[in-house]
Amino acid sequence: MVRVTAPTGSGDGTGPAADRRAVAAPAGLPDASASAQADRRQTGAVSPAVTVVGIDAAGRPPHPDAHDALARARLVVGAARHLAALPAPPGCPTVVLGPLAPALARLAAAVAAGAPAVVLASGDPGLFGIVRRLRAAGLPVRVLPAVSSVAAAFARAGLDWDGAAVLTAHGRDPGPALNACRALPAVAVLTAPGAGAAEIGAGLAGWPRRLVVAEHLGTDAERVTWTTPEQAATRAWADPHVLLSLAPTPAPAPSAPPGVGPMRTDNQPAAAPPGGWALPESAYHHRDSMITKAEVRALAVARLRPRLGRLVWDVGAGSGSVGIECALLGAAVIAVERDPDAPVAANAARHGVQVRVVTGHAPAALRDLPDPDAVFVGGGGTDVLAAVAARRPGRVVLTLAALDRVAPAVHLLRDAGYAVDGSQLSAARLADLPGGSLRLAATNPVVVLTGERP
Predict the structure, then answer these.
(1) Looking at the DSSP assignment, which residues form a beta bridge with residue 442?
(2) Phi and psi dihedrals of 245, rounded to 5?
(3) Strands, E, within 34-185: which ranges?
(4) Rounded Cα distance, 116 and 201, in Å
(5) Which of 69, 235, 248, 317 lies 20 to 30 Å from 204 when distance is taken between CA atoms?
(6) Distance between CA atoms of 392 and 438, rounded to whole angstroms?
(7) What's the CA gap between 26 and 269, in Å, rounded?
(8) What is the pLDDT of residue 263?
(9) Parallel, antiparallel, or unpaired for β 311-315 and 332-337?
């Protein structure tokens, strides 16, 4: 698969036509304007000038239309292996993909000259592929996809994947892909050298996952391996490969493949939860009302800014309500709680999210955890807050009921380089009185502090 990182464009394939007309046909490109005009007269419509043809790993194009497009092509662009698998017609100019800019210029010239052009790419070129860049360049595109490497990997593993998230670590920070694997039950990652199964496996230490590594898909050297994160971290894998990260089922059926967890079926693996957030305390098991109240939790979660690709710590988790609502919004979550009987895991299961629970006393329990993007501190003293600040997360949110703890926390965060703001929340809830009357029942006021790194 050809994968490129491109600036966001309009995506409608209607770039400035005047600019395209001003591009001269390159040397060696046959003048196809007469034949193109004849085609337009016969069909009454203008066919897309750039046909993107997907080729699977074994070198097979998707369907006969691909051969027809090649037969009419006046320019063919592709990687050397694709040009070898699907040769251009005799005498047709070709461009071997390396730097993309020269190829885009040749394609723009072909469009301006009315010459049909073909771009060869791997698998489904619309999945982290060259289609995005072609459209961003204003080129009209027709796509003939082959089976994508992700679809092939799930097929080889015998799995459905309509609820899986698909991310790429190719040419970008692999951290969001890793955190998606930590947060979601089914993730496919398009890998790159240095950002593959070994590295992601090492980063999944502590998360219960099964991995499927699909190498050389569609070739005689194809290999599909079921493994664990720990085993994957110690092996060398062929580049590039497709990695599937799967959460285990709580009670797998006897006929189910190992390591296949529940997938969301709403086709939005990181969508806002259908039940909302800032849920009532009754939505969680808790002890003696030791839970962050819904009004406070709403602000705390908003300040943490959870989303897919971020890692959040919930320190002093208790019931785990803050971390669970971050997980419902797509973040990977580690809940740190000293009480081994705390209902964090039960609450996470109740809400159908993946939360890693670490039992131990902070700050010692924080020492070996992966670096977070944001941290909620729901318990502990200044030593815990200092240990959190030392890890330099982008945001730190804490709740304090005791006013004498506010100033030391503010000064500690400021000394650590954080800009700090805060609010006191004093909520009063409706309560019934005899005879049908209503009153307001006050909850305890709480100070919410937010520290943000500049």
Answers:
(1) 428
(2) -110, 125
(3) 50-55, 75-78, 94-96, 117-122, 141-144, 165-168
(4) 45
(5) 317
(6) 47
(7) 46
(8) 53
(9) parallel
Q: Quick one: which of 71, 173, 57, 191 has its CA closest to 128?
A: 191
C-alpha 325/C-alpha 301 separation (Å) is: 7
**Extended strands (E) in 228-384:** 241-246, 311-315, 332-337, 356-359, 374-377
Q: Please check the confidence at residue 266 and state whether its pLDDT lies above 80.
A: no
Please give the full DSSP string across 178-208, using - where no structure is assigned: HHHHHH-SEEEEE-BTTBSHHHHHHHTTTS-
Mean pLDDT of 281-302: 89
Whether the predicted pLDDT of 402 surpasses 90: yes
Place of tokens 């390159």: 26
- Residue 41 pLDDT greater than 80, yes or no: no
Kindly give, in sequence order, each residue whose CB lies less than 8 Å from that of residue 78, ignoring residues fewer than 6 positions away: 86, 94, 95, 96, 97, 118, 119, 120, 121
What mean pLDDT do residues 296-310 have? 94
DSSP label at residue 424 = E
Q: What are the CA-CA distances from residue 125 to residues 52, 155, 160, 171 (Å)?
A: 7, 18, 21, 16
- pLDDT over threshold 70, residue 256: no
Among 367, 365, 404, 359, smallest CA distance to 382 is for: 404
- Where do we find the tokens 């050298």? 193
Backbone angles phi, psi at 177, to 5 degrees: -65, -40
| Closest residue by Cα to residue 188 from 223, 221, 222, 162 | 162
Taking phi over 0 as left and psi of -120 to 50 as alpha, with beta for the rest, 428 belongs to beta
Cβ atoms 273, 330 nearer than 8 A: no
Q: What share of the chain is helix, strand, coil (3-state, %, to 5)?
A: 30, 20, 50
Looking up tokens 């391996």 gives 225
Contact 360, 339 (CB under 8 A): no
> What 8-state DSSP symbol labels residue 384?
H
Rounded Cα distance, 297 and 299, in Å? 5
Stated pTM of the model: 0.76
Determine the 3-state secondary structure of 223 from DSSP.
strand
| Contact between residue 157 and residue 212 where contact means Cβ atoms under 8 Å apart | yes
Contacts of 88-95 with C-beta under 8 Å, sequence gap 24+, read 88/118, 91/30, 93/26, 93/28, 93/29
| Eight-state DSSP code of residue 37 | H
- Specify the pLDDT at position 428: 86
| CB 47, CB 78: distance < 8 Å | no
169, 191 contact by CB (below 8 A): yes
DSSP β-bridge partners for residue 399: 448
Helix (H) or strand (E) segment spanning residue 451? strand 446-452
Q: Name the residue with tokens 């502590």.
A: 206
